[in-house]
């Protein structure tokens, strides 16, 4: 694990431990709908990647991904929430990015800068001032790659937009909600996500396990 990854992992732990300082939980005594938007920072460990292409020997290597957090669109999460008392359900969309920075000579480009996007359905529980979350869904990746000089086309996938459903996703989180008044509240969360991805490349597939941490903070509005 690189120094940068260790630093971000320590930040994730400190963020989660510091959530109580945000104040009391959002009082939920009746059924409400909310929309939440949050910016975030990812923690992305190195992972093992294997690539197979028709008529070529397989590739297997340990790759390091950059999250490209300084370029737009930034790492963000939006979700629609239905809370009924202390519990609720949510549909969330988390936009992450993956850019391989140290692949082998055969892999000159491998990235998902238009998104390694996590679409999930989430169950929420408020207990002891925290909001706990567990969910599942699918990863939608916009795959861009050049492997052995073969460029993967960008006009396929869902609706011809270049997005592909590449993995089932599991996610868990620990959050804090703070009431500001007039139906507006702050929301922060330390989240983890896991997926086992099969991403198309020209003439074959790339496979890897994506394990990420996410620090998310923003605001919500009830209606």
Characterization of this structure:
It is built from 1 helix and 13 strands, in the order αβββββββββββββ. It is mainly β and 223 residues long. The chain has a single domain, classed as Beta Barrel (Porin), CATH 2.40.160. Strand 5 and strand 6 (87-100) form a beta hairpin. The longest helix is centred in the first third of the chain and has 16 residues, at 3-18. It is elongated, with a radius of gyration of 19 Å. It starts with a helix and ends with a strand. The model has no long low-confidence stretch (mean pLDDT 88).
- Beta percentage is over 45%
Calculate Rg over CA atoms: 19 Å
Low-confidence stretches: none
Summed over residues and divided by their number, the pLDDT gives a mean of: 88
Summarize the main sheet: 8 strands, antiparallel, barrel
Shape: elongated
In CATH, the architecture is Beta Barrel
CATH fold group = Porin
Distance between the termini: 44 Å
Number of structural domains: 1
Number of helices: 1
Proportion in helices: under 10%
How many distinct beta strands?
Answer: 13
Order of helices and strands: HEEEEEEEEEEEEE
Strands side by side in the biggest sheet: 1-5-6-7-8-11-12-13
Structural class: mainly beta
CATH class: Mainly Beta
Provide a compact summary of the structure:
The protein contains 1 helix and 13 strands; from the N terminus they run αβββββββββββββ.
List keywords for this structure.
1 helix; mainly beta; 223 residues
């Amino acid at each position: 694990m690189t120094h940068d990854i260790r630093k971000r992992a320590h930040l994730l732990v400190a963020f989660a431990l510091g959530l109580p300082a945000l104040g009391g939980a959002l009082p939920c005594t009746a059924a409400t709908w909310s929309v939440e938007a949050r910016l975030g920072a990812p923690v992305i460990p190195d992972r093992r990647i294997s690539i197979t292409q028709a008529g070529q020997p397989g590739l297997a290597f340990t790759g390091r991904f950059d999250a490209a957090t300084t370029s737009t669109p930034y790492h963000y999460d939006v979700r629609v929430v239905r809370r009924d008392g202390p519990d609720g359900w949510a549909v969330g969309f988390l936009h992450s990015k993956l850019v391989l920075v140290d692949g082998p000579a055969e892999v000159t480009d491998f990235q998902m800068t238009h998104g390694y996007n996590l679409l999930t359905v989430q169950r929420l529980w408020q207990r002891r001032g925290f909001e706990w979350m567990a969910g599942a869904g699918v990863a939608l990746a916009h795959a861009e790659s050049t492997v052995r000089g073969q460029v993967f086309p960008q006009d396929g996938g869902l609706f011809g937009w270049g997005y592909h459903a590449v993995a089932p996703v599991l996610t868990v989180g620990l959050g804090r909600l703070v009431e500001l008044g007039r139906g507006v509240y702050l929301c922060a969360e330390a989240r983890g996500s896991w997926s086992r991805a099969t991403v198309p490349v020209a003439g074959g597939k790339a496979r890897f396990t994506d394990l990420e941490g996410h620090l998310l903070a923003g605001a919500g509005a009830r209606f």
